[in-house]
Amino acid sequence: SEILSTYTLQQLKSLHIDSATEHKFLECIPKFSNLLELKITNTYLPQISDTLILGASKLEHITFSNNSLSLIPSTFFENCTNLSVLDLSTNKLQTVENSWFISLQKLVQLSLERNQITNFPSDVLISLKSLQILNLAENYIKIIPPNFVLPSLKSMNVSWNQLTELNQFVQNNPHLHDFDISGNKLTECFISKNLQTLYASENQITVLKFDTFGKFRISTLFIGNNQIRNGTELLKLSKLNFLDISQNDISVDFTQLYKLKNLISFNVSSIPSIKLPADPTVPSNLLELDLSNNGLSFISGQFIKSFPRLTDLYLHGNKLTKNSIEEIHKDLQHLVNLSSD
């Protein structure tokens, strides 16, 4: 309190309190009427007073992360009408209350990752018409209701939860561009025409589903460590820059790879049934190719020449001889990084 009182109350715009052991200083926060940013982090604070930010009505950014916070008063944020960023990550919240958000019409980014949230009702964020970025990663959520719709939502992270279905949710949120669903229990993955980035690794996905009409915009797709066997339809994703299909028992037709004209990074590591063609294929624009951990004993020089622009090649975890690796290096003039055993 004595330290904070040395500042001119009307001038302080940003306040960051980290690793505090005394909570008396919290009493001063309502006096900072022009405060725009408040961060309280790494402080044991299981619950907070409903008057903590009562006088700081101009706040635009609040971070209460890593505080063991388990309880937030229902009207705590009611005066925060200018708030655009709210970070409640790494706490012990078990529920998310609709009442927290009623006044937050300008909220753009909400972070709730690494809590203990189990339930996420469809109407819990109904007030957040401006919300663009939502992070719910590393909780215990089993269901995101299909009718959970946020009109401005562009980026969402629900990785490392316990979700089993998200197809209808994706279809009902057409503005969603960036989606991380890694580490769940999904068996299907829906790729909408508006998605630009999709991280779906480490699920139980066997089926990929695609929008029926329209051109796909997706540029980054990570679907490694699933149970996908057929990847033929991936060739329709012509704007892909980064593709990871590693750790699937999937058929890979390198003779068709040229159709992905924009692809610069391709991870096909740890695919038991992979077969590389011996003959040359139509040249590809790939810059990075990961063929590691496939048990390959031979790679045709003609095949390697199909990637004239390659700068990074990963071959560790195979059975290639030293001589064959040296020959590969000679065939790739632009190679910068060659990883091998």
Detailed description of the structure:
- The structure is a single chain.
- By secondary structure, the protein is mainly β.
- The protein has three helices and 17 strands.
- It has helices spanning 167-172, 301-304, 322-331, and strands at residues 14-18, 37-41, 61-63, 85-87, 109-111, 133-135, 155-157, 178-180, 188-191, 197-199, 207-210, 220-222, 242-244, 265-267, 288-290, 312-314, 337-339.
- Strands 1-2-3-4-5-6-7-8-10-12-13-14-15-16-17 form a 15-stranded parallel sheet, with no helix packed on it. The protein has a two-stranded parallel sheet with strand order 9-11.
- Helix 2 links the parallel strand 15 and strand 16.
- The chain is elongated and about 75 Å long.
- The model has no long low-confidence stretch (mean pLDDT 92).
- Pfam families: LRR_1, LRR_8.
- This is Insulin-like growth factor-binding protein complex acid labile subunit.
- Keywords: Leucine-rich repeat, Repeat.
- InterPro entries: Leu-rich_rpt, Leu-rich_rpt_typical-subtyp, LRR_dom_sf, SLRP.
Instruction: Output the structural class.
Output: mainly beta
Radius of gyration: 25 Å
Low-confidence stretches: none
- End-to-end Cα distance, whole Å, is 60 Å
Strand content: 15-25%
Largest sheet: 15 strands, parallel
SSE series: EEEEEEEHEEEEEEEEHEHE
Query: Order of strands across the widest beta sheet?
Result: 1-2-3-4-5-6-7-8-10-12-13-14-15-16-17
Helix content: under 10%
Mean pLDDT: 92
What sort of overall outline do the alpha carbons produce when their principal axes are compared?
Answer: elongated
Give me the count of strands: 17
Pfam families: LRR_1, LRR_8
Keywords: Leucine-rich repeat, Repeat
Protein name: Insulin-like growth factor-binding protein complex acid labile subunit
Organism: Culex pipiens (House mosquito)
